[in-house]
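> agent: user asked for a holo structure of the chain below bound to magnesium ion. Plan: (1) validate sequence alphabet, (2) canonicalize SMILES, (3) run complex prediction with ligand conditioning, (4) return tokens. Step 1... ok. Step 2... ok. Step 3 dispatched.
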Amino acid sequence: MANATIIQFNNVTKQYDNDPPVLDNVSFEIERGKFYTLLGPSGCGKTTILRLIAGFMEPSKGEIFFNGKKINQIPANKRQVNTVFQDYALFPHLNVFENVAFGLRIKKLKNAEIQAKVKEALSFVNLSGYENREIREMSGGQRQRVAIARAIVNEPEVILLDEPLSALDLKLRTEMQYELRELQRRLGITFIFVTHDQEEALAMSDEIFVINKGTIQQSGTPTDIYDEPINRFVADFIGESNIVSGKMKKDYLVEFVGREFDCVDMGFTPNEPVEIVIRPEDLEITSLERGKLQVKVDSQLFRGVHYEISCYDKDGNEWLVHSTKKANVGDQIGLYFDPEAIHVMRLGETEEEFDRRLETYADVDRHGK
Ligand SMILES: Nc1ncnc2c1ncn2[C@@H]1O[C@H](COP(=O)(O)OP(=O)(O)O)[C@@H](O)[C@H]1O
Ligand SMILES: [Mg+2]
């Protein structure tokens, strides 16, 4: 396909009155047929992005393109986009069939065509046979599926889903995560899914946009974002992290907690201040002598597969460890980690600068450092 880009935001800003912008100069591209997730805390601007794509509002500044055509002023009902809302917004007085058929009736399709399309949409979400049920007779998960059927029956190019799973209990939620992901694969439609739950985002997405305070902090695959967070916000928001301040002494040598450690990062100015991330699963419990850090075990929780162990060093920094081995609360232990486990983050680095820096590491790897 010549052009895989279906939606493009160019320097889009959304501002109400003289308040600070709720979206600030946001640019991104969405490729056709993928599962995207907008991830960020409440109030960061996720729903605003969906509303701009759906055509429920216009940007204050910037341009929005759909299939290469500027759509800033195109009304919602002329866009190839359907939204699944958080509360599903089903019509309580209509049965399942009529809820799904609603948009097709407005478009004045022939009855036979409506019958066929609704039947197919319901079968896609495993609700064949539920046509005549009232909405109030449906469970939370079933209502969710009706809402999805109502979106896919219009055969949109993009489906927007605004925190559709947040009202469900944990077990149903996990089931629906699989179902939604599976449905997206079968339909091949672009999904843009909103959540504030990082585990959900990691489990479901081809691409994640991590958003904070109206700007996209980082975009990438779940593994990119988990393994190489761009800054403290992303590292903290995605998964559990140990984050401390430090200094790059020179290439491949970093200082933190008052000591120097070999690392794999380069291209910083000498003594440049940085932030360090080490993931809890990259810390290994070992003897005091072999440990690169010496810590005291403060508390321990069993999490089913691993122990979550909280330790403190003598400066009072907390070190969280995920280990299949048990520790003893009160013990002095060593923590060992590989140079690769140290992830160095430059303060205030833009996503482009960050990506370029990572590419130079890949070059070094290829040429054998
Ligand atoms: N009509 C409005 N007028 C003023 N501020 C608004 C309006 N709608 C949303 N906001 C503000 O925009 C920000 C982003 O909102 P939203 O996109 O709904 O966040 P999210 O979906 O990430 O929780 C919030 O601070 C919210 O208060
Ligand atoms: Mg929202």
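> agent: step 4 complete. Summary for user: The pocket of adenosine-5'-diphosphate (ligand 1) is lined by residues 16, 22, 40, 42-48 (CB under 6 Å). The chain has three domains: 5-227, 241-279+338-369, 284-336.
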